[in-house]
Amino acid sequence: MTADDDSRHPGEPPREHAFYGRRKGKKLRTAQAAHLAADLPRLAIALDEVGAGPLAALFPQPVRAVRLEIGFGGGEHLVSEAARHPDIGYIGAEAFLNGIAKATARVAERGLGNVRLYGDDVIPLLDRLPPGALERIDLLYPDPWPKRRHWKRRFVQADNIDRFARLLTPGGHFRFATDIEHYAAWTLRQLLADPRFDWTAERADDWRLPWDGWPGTRYEAKALREGRRPGYYEFRRR
Fold first, then answer.
1. Is 109 annotated as a binding residue?
2. What is the pLDDT of residues 94-143, one digit of tens each?
3. Which of 107, 141, 153, 172, CA to CA, is 20 to 30 A from 6?
4. Distance of alpha carbon 175 from alpha carbon 177, whole angstroms
5. Is 26 inside any structural domain?
6. How far apart are CA 224 and CA 136, in angstroms?
7. Domain that includes residue 100, residue range
8. Quick one: which residues bind substrate (predicted)?
9. Is 136 marked as binding a ligand?
10. Residue 94 is labelled as binding a ligand
11. What's the angle, vertex CA 101, arms to CA 38 and CA 112, rounded to 5?
């Protein structure tokens, strides 16, 4: 499907279930391909695993809570957080094969037992997860779809906010980072109007400065090089 093609074939899922973007980029490095073959089978989540029991059972080591990162890119933040919090399970969802390969290699090389990966459109996974199953959801530097006719493709939409509200435990958090001012305003407008969420910021530095332990990402580094200032927005589920 091209960026400008809004048509669907019979039997395709509705628009809110569609993945927009490339699934594969440049050729994988030899080591990345080797990790995919050797390590991804034990890290990958199959949909039929989800909902069959407690979400913590997805992980080979005990975890006290589970967090989800949607669109983890190269896995920099996902792996850093998992290494910092070995008692928390992390599910990373990314439809881009090259990102899956990078994250698989990073997880394997650090020997992390609290990470599972989902390599497809995240919507079926969100709909399969049980209510209140997640302590936190991270959406970091998603595609802003800057053209007005493509705004409906942005991930922060009413239907996905409903999914976040269903999946987050009371007191759980949704974290959103972007370097695109319009997307930040778009997200704030929707979340501030939703009675199920509270914006946690009390002062400007709460959204201007990264969260504690923030490792940075390659997307963020590019934004800073090009003069765009990132924002870090956090919302608490009531």
1. no
2. 999 999 999 999 999 999 999 999 999 999 999 999 999 999 999 999 99
3. 141
4. 7
5. yes
6. 26
7. 15-237
8. 147, 179, 217-220
9. no
10. yes
11. 65
